[in-house]
Amino acid sequence: MCAHISDLLREIEELYRETPRHIDGGILGSMTTWPHEVGVVAFNRFIHVNGNDPALFPVVRECEEKLVSEVGSLYSAKYGLHTSGGTESNILAILAAIRNTSSRVVVAPSTVHKSIDKACILMNCKLVKIPTHPLKPVDKGVLEEKVREYKPSIIVITAGTTETGVVDPVEEVAEIAEKHGVYLHVDGAYGGLLIPFLRRHGLINVDLRIGNGVSSISVDMHKNGASPIPSSLLFFQDRDLLDNVCFDMDYMPSGKSCGLLGTRPGGAVVAAYYTWRAIGLRGYEENALRMMNHAKYLFEELSEIPGVEVYPYTLPIIVFKSLKYGDSLFNILWSRGLYLYKAPSLKALRVVIMPHHSRLHIDRLLKTLRDLHSG
Ligand SMILES: Cc1ncc(COP(=O)(O)O)c(C=O)c1O
Known about the structure:
alpha/beta; Aspartate Aminotransferase, domain 1; globular; seven-stranded mixed beta sheet; Aspartate Aminotransferase, domain 2; 16% strand
């Protein structure tokens, strides 16, 4: 016997009410955000569309092409594709680098996202990690030594690391990559939609750009892009690299399939494009500046709380620890509806300021921390 639709809808509403929402302000550690309303409409409207079938659903190809061209212009990129997230983009970048080579070596600082480990397990690559302090960019001298020693097919660095938001020295590493003829992937899943805007205001000195040694850059639309999940973009230096992540699929009308997934949410591609248009360059710039202001405020206020140690920041990720509560602070805060994440290599906690955050959300966290550390 099947359940009544009205009962199921009521149950779904109850589950929705019990589920944390970004706009309520408690989600403070995740790199996700409340998706833009225009993106939500676009996603729902094209919920039936298979992103793997651009012949039947040309809207997907059109939106993907416009996204690649318009978002890509921030990084001087002309070629690329929409993927399901930073993990898929990283896996594909490594695939693009190794598909036509015999070497299976990846060199990366130890601060890279875990999806690089995952990619190496999947594709049987040897991952050479350069020990790197979580608060520092990779040492380019050590990186070049490893490149000489291991002759990798790809170097991966990060423009905004997951734990602390540190940005590796893109231009210097690109020079090394070019000199040694090695593919360089820059993982900008988190920082990609912040750095170009912050750079205009002198808040960061990194030129995130395809070419001159940079073979690919990934940028997540479902992080600071404020698009519905799942949504990332992977940009390549040339068409051949893009072809390396495409496969023959002769039963499909387009004859091929690009990326890891087969059938995939076409609505996410349309949503990403319309979110991008709705927010606009000015909106992304304002978001980036507002988030940096919130980060500065949080950093300064945390520094004033006795028993709290706060670390320097580059992008709007604030990492701190409590000398009074240690690791137990994580559970204490979660039990109060303040959902921070861990920064495991510093045995600390991470707050990621995202586009939906307001001063009120940060003040609620600060008040709780002040109360916990008073007396
Ligand atoms: C730098 C970086 N790269 C890749 C990823 C993976 O992204 P996703 O969770 O969208 O697969 C993350 C996730 O936080 C990240 O911070």
